[in-house]
Amino acid sequence: MVALAILRVEKLKSFGNIGGSEKHTARLQDTPNADTTKKNIRLIGMEDDSPLEVLVKNKIAKTTLHKPRKDAVLCSDIFLSASPEYFRPDDPSLAGEWDNPRMLDFVKASRSWLVNNYGDKCVRAELHLDEATPHIHAYVVPINEKTKQLSHKEMFGGNGRAASIKLSKLQDSYAAALAPLGIERGVKGSKATHTKVKEYYQAVNSEPLTAVWSNKKLAPQPLESATNYVARIQNDHQFHAINHQLADRAFMQERLESAEQRARASEKERQRLEEIVRSLELKTQQLRDLDLEDVAWELGLHHEEGKWKGHGHIINIDGPKFYDFAPDQQKGSGGAIDLVMHVNQCNFRQAVVWLDERFESAGVERAAIAHVKNRAADIIQTEPRPQFAPPVEDKANWSAIEHYLTQKRGIPSDCIQMLHNQGLVYADQQQNAVFVMRNLDGQRNGAFLRGTRGENNSFKGYSKGTKRSDSWFYFHLGGKANDKTSTAILCKSPIDAISRAMLEYLIRGDVPPERTVYMAIDDFKSLPLERLRDINNIVVAFGNDKSSDAAAQRVLELIPQSQIKKSQAHDWNQQLLDYGRQLRQQHQQQQEQDDELSL
């Protein structure tokens, strides 16, 4: 069977709920279905061993602006696991056992997913290895970044369809994180409710004696009383192992049956949507333009020798088009409204009223739609395409741009010169640094401008006419020019992209060994998704602030194989400046030491 990703979310609405949940996950109380010989592992929150209630209170106090509402969800318990087929592929029924490399891969992928999605909102995560199947309990404080208030609804959805959609997207995201391990997403679009965490444990712990009897491995001894038998098997480790095994199998069987039900419901929903699509297609066909010959007949024209004649007109009709061959007319066009306007010598509004009298409102609507389409088609075919005009280069201002980028932005001069020689950076007449934006075939479709004149110039923006959906500032380093790009590093601005590349160059001492593209993406709407999906290694390096975090998460949703890399400073340019300052300090200290030795 295929291994499936498992994700559940449970609300903890009071600190009493939080304390009770911690007693279970931290094993502060007796847990009958837990194997005491196996040790659980804390994955997140190792540095602070305070009670979970204290961690949540501190997080709320430091992050929120208002006191939580009485009905607010204080903490969300996220349950993460995979079906037994992943952990023990040779025999999924062996509860309490697992393939260790597989388990470690699952833990690494799950922990990375928690950190990337929730950051420091995830105050603790526990890996449980002492039960039937390895799983993780993660505690997330659901704080809305915009309102600075607790909002489980905003993070995970409330009730009804909105909650279902958000939870479905969350499960998509988690399944994508586990996909490299061969773990798949469960049936999507289910109308069934998800099993809660506590219901899972009810299933695992249900009917222990029945499980033993059905297995028949711990049969009563001859002449043994029922009281002694129960006491004996409850103290036997085999009893717990068998109970876990059978309960886990029963639980997964129930989940399989539920998945099959959801699949049947999804198929019915698909058939219903297909019927709607067929209906819309039929309706679209009915919205075609009126037959021009019917309109010509209503206009009082008569058909003679293949032409429609009358009122001084000799009109040939060819499908949706017509042409008037009369000596003083010599005009062609298309559509019912145009024909009425031409023959009756009236304006658009008068033609619509005329059609309404003859063909009623449905006919008028069809004619109006055709009229608009015809006008749009004529414009598209005849109007010249606007071409981007790059800002005029002013070579006299280049020295000021170079000084700004090297001295104030800390970018090495040889890098700036390289980009300038490639025509990717230059100066305009207003002393703006012009970062040339190209489509992925190299055509210039735009430019990003950064003001440099004056001491505190903060101007930045796009040159007029820039096609933001099909042009980016980007450059390649490493490998050969005709090599396939192996790595894409996405930054939020041209200067950040250059800074990130220079940090890697200064630390590594050389260009990357494989072909790497550094690209400025200021909005997830402009992502070249089709091209990026062909690149195996994608790094989302948008900086280290809240807006950057939100944008990076959106990219991660669109390109699941990407990974987020935060800068240590506010952005990569500030980190480059800090790194350059450290190098200068080290050089100065070394120089002072050399001077002392020379004395």
Q: What are the segments in which pLDDT stays under 50 over at least 5 consecutive residues? A: 190-198, 203-215, 281-288
Strand content: 15-25%
Largest sheet: 5 strands, antiparallel
Mean pLDDT: 82
Got a strand count?
A: 21
From the helix content, strand content and strand pairing, which structural class follows? alpha+beta
Give a description of the structure.
With 599 residues, the protein is an alpha+beta fold. It has helices at residues 15-25, 52-63, 84-87, 100-118, 152-156, 161-178, 197-204, 208-215, 226-234, 237-286, 292-298, 336-344, 348-382, 398-408, 413-421, 494-508, 529-532, 546-558, 572-598; strands at 5-12, 41-44, 75-82, 122-128, 135-140, 143-144, 149-150, 302-304, 307-310, 313-318, 321-324, 331-334, 425-427, 432-438, 444-451, 460-462, 474-477, 487-491, 516-520, 537-540, 563-564. The chain is built from 19 helices and 21 strands. Helix 8 (208-215) packs across helix 10. Keywords: Coiled coil. Residues 242-293 form a coiled coil. It comes from Nostoc flagelliforme FACHB-838.
Descriptive terms for the model:
alpha+beta, Mob_Pre, Plasmid recombination protein, DUF3991, coiled coil, 5-stranded antiparallel sheet, 599 residues
Quick take:
With 599 residues, this protein is α+β, with helices and mostly antiparallel strands. It contains 19 helices and 21 strands.
Helix-strand layout with pairing:
Blueprint: E1 5-12, H1 15-25, E2 41-44, H2 52-63, E3 75-82, H3 84-87, H4 100-118, E4 122-128, E5 135-140, E6 143-144, E7 149-150, H5 152-156, H6 161-178, H7 197-204, H8 208-215, H9 226-234, H10 237-286, H11 292-298, E8 302-304, E9 307-310, E10 313-318, E11 321-324, E12 331-334, H12 336-344, H13 348-382, H14 398-408, H15 413-421, E13 425-427, E14 432-438, E15 444-451, E16 460-462, E17 474-477, E18 487-491, H16 494-508, E19 516-520, H17 529-532, E20 537-540, H18 546-558, E21 563-564, H19 572-598
Parallel strand pairs: 18-19, 18-20, 20-21
Antiparallel strand pairs: 1-3, 2-4, 3-5, 4-5, 6-7, 8-9, 9-10, 10-11, 11-12, 13-14, 14-15, 15-16, 17-19
Helix pairs in contact: 4-6, 8-10, 12-13, 16-19
